[in-house]
Fold this protein.
Amino acid sequence: MKIEDKLILSVVGGLKALYGQDVPAGSVQMQKTKREFQGHFTLVVFPFLRMSRKSPEQTGEEIGQYLVANEPAVAAFNVIKGFLNLTVAPAAWIDLLNQIRADRHYGLAEPDDASPLVMIEYSSPNTNKPLHLGHVRNNLLGAALANIMAATGNRVVKTNIVNDRGIHICKSMLAWMKYGNGETPDSSGKKGDHLVGDYYVAFDRRYKAEVADLMARGMGKEEAEAASPLMREAREMLVKWEAGDPDVRALWTKMNGWVYAGFDETYRRMGVAFDKIYYESDTYLEGKKKVLEGLGKGVFYRKEDGSVWADLTPEGLDHKLLLRADGTSVYMTQDIGTAQIRFSDYPIDKMIYVVGNEQNYHFQVLSILLDKLGFDWGKSLVHFSYGMVELPEGKMKSREGTVVDADDLMDEMIATARETSRELGKLDGLTRAEADDIARVVGMGALKYFILKVDARKNMTFNPKESIDFNGNTGPFIQYTYARIRSVLRKAAEAGITMPPSLPATLGLNTKEEGLIQLLADFAAVVKQAGEDYNPSLIANYVYELVKEYNQFYHDFSILRETDGERRVFRLALSAQVSEVVRNGMGLLGIEVPERM
């Protein structure tokens, strides 16, 4: 049992003994004592003044005296106005540490066959370009959220929906047909997604040149865009694709295959995986079918031009187009089709979409439509909405080729980590293979941590140089602290020092040791809160606080050089548990921690 829970039960007993009142535990407000006051936990006594009929100070004194006399976990107390500050006895802290050490999966719940099934959709790439920095944030948030939901007792299915159809795909295909000269990933030495992305950029460049030329001949901008021969060819190709033209479909299959191979490599490097991948080319027809089914049931309506709409004015929204007059689908239709297929594949209890905040309205509408169509989880679907990520230089644009590709970013992070680690002497004595692995772990850890420590709802600027710093709230700082602890533990093992399963409760503790145990005890609650709030940054910043406190402890007190054998073993056990929680916390974020560094 957590110490604060034990204290709350004792307060409930004290109120009964002192004032003859039965008080529910939920009405007892216990919080951590602020740093400027003495104590570990603070009880707010104002709610009990009616029953005590005394001043806040007198009431606090009486409850404090009762706890010191009747609760072994309380060693002392002080009262400041209406706040009772309680000092926890060292034996209670050691008992708590022993409980944590005995729990092999401390803070991490184990889902079973009866656990709720949560499906999480993330990544959602287009097959006309490689993954970029925005996708990196999406993938890292989605993967971390999947880990956190599993750690809070849910069964999790990780899914990806690939946008593999549409005019943007045809632009890359048409540009390759016209200007590619049969170029392939093998012949060019480029990853397939990068190769296809180059032709997407090439299309845009040629298209803009055509528009500029037509405008120079006297056309207005909109007229020139509509008259562009290149864009007309792209639209014609899309029509052929929709009609199942064998040549267009063959080219589409080939070029998408190049892209998928490239995506797989990027996902592997990023440490991201999926249990099931869906493709819009498969789901859009299912969506049309579901919309027509809703039309037949009177859920939707058809306009005179043949288009199908949903009237959402009763929900305070507007009318939403679901099928165009020519029968073609829109994004909403495709999402309905994907939901239908997923619901057939899995008994989903909760659906979480990891998609940027520019789609907030889309998912508000989707939730209503899925509910109208009878999906049990429609009303409760979660749009895990996150802000934009930019570089210090500003926004990125795919069409203009000014995005930062995920692969290039990872290469830069690993190279920077290698150089920084070498300059700081952290690669000394390592083999080339070991140094390369450290550079990879640190570089990727820096990237992931810098992105995940920010509340997902906020826009953020990613600064590669700041993220590699070995000091401050960064991944490398946490990784280095973990490696430092592992080094201490290896030296202890080499010296023949062993740690017993249970530590003696008779040992006196300093405030740093007590503070570390109190922080360790918070891990389970932080993981639970991160799952409830869909907020990986809570875990990232908790781990940083734990590591920061440990480093102060490490600086102020000896561990291996401690002459008192019992205290030395205690500090080793405390250090080992800190490293365990750091490893598990970072693991939930998808971040590796090195044993040596």
The two ends are 36 Å apart (CA to CA). The first strand starts at residue 30 and ends at 32. Residues 192-216 form the longest helix (25 residues). The chain has 21 helices and 14 strands.
